[in-house]
Amino acid sequence: MLVFSAVPRAQWRQLWSTNPLERRNKELKRRCRVVGIFPTEAALVRRAGAVLLDAREEWLAAEQRYFSEASMATLYPERDDVDTVTGELEGALAD
Fold first, then answer.
1. Residues of the chain with pLDDT under 50
2. What is the pTM of this model?
3. How far apart are CA 44 and CA 48, in angstroms?
4. Model pLDDT for residues 82-94, shown as the tens digit of each residue
5. What is the pLDDT of residue 42?
6. Are 31 and 47 in contact (CB under 8 A)?
7. What angle separates helix 19-35 from helix 41-61, to the nearest 10 degrees?
């Protein structure tokens, strides 16, 4: 069974697509190519991290998200019994 099949059907289209990942990789490559040669591996990691951090901030501030908050709420239904959920998580981690 594929993992995405546990996700509501309305979100399957977004999960099947690799467009956001490809777009992010292309932007990362473009922004790192501007520098040319990095003096150290740490410099490359800092640059790539800064690019990805910018992308994350844009994602959080965006009005229109790839997954809306409403659609994400369907993934995690609200539960009143917090102790049961905590016990389930602890049991899953122990396995």
1. none
2. 0.52
3. 6
4. 555 556 556 656 6
5. 93
6. yes
7. 140
Distance separating alpha carbons of residues 87 and 93, to the nearest angstrom: 10
DSSP per-residue string spanning 24-86:
HHHHHHHHHHHH-S-SSHHHHHHHHHHHHHHHHHHHHH-SS-SS-HHHHHTTS---S-HHHHH
Q: Which residues are within 8 A (CB) of 28 and not within 5 positions of it... i.e. 6 or more apart?
A: 48, 51, 52
Q: What is the DSSP letter of 3?
A: G
pLDDT value for 10? 73
On whether the CB atoms of residues 67 and 14 are closer than 8 A, the answer is yes
Tokens standing for residue 13: 């289209």
Kindly give, in sequence order, each residue whose CB lies less than 8 Å from that of residue 11, ignoring residues fewer than 6 positions away: 67, 71, 74, 75
Among 72, 92, 87, CA closest to 10: 72
